[in-house]
Amino acid sequence: MQWSTMAATAVGTVLGVASTLIADHIRWRRDTSERDREALRTAFTGYLTALAQVRGAFSRTEPSAERVGKGHITLGAHGVYEAQQQLELMAQTPVVDMAGRATLSMLDFHDVVVTGHGSDSVEYLHAWRAAREARQALIDEMKMALQRT
Fold this sequence. Notes:
Blueprint: H1 3-59, H2 71-77, H3 80-90, H4 93-114, H5 122-148
């Protein structure tokens, strides 16, 4: 057998193995990235769902002076804090910061409602708008984070 045939066979084998390893690595990275994106999307959805539920609960809250400053109890009951902690573990700092702002805006909205401001008052509309804007800014940042992942 000639050396050139053996060398060509060895080079071909090495190239075949290397190309297979490279293709497997690329596929693994793509699959990992997709799983990470899906986990992040699930965490984002969980937080936004909890926030929407608490916003609805706050909208139906009756005025009560002793409940001012106690919106955090309702946030906890609707899973907002748990969902926010999950974001802290998975998401980048801008998303976590904006989620914190959205949570605080919900607490402000709660306090406006329980102090007796009706849905037609300036205070109510201001708090509602601030909560909606904080949520929208968070959603925009979440979309960018999903595109980067």
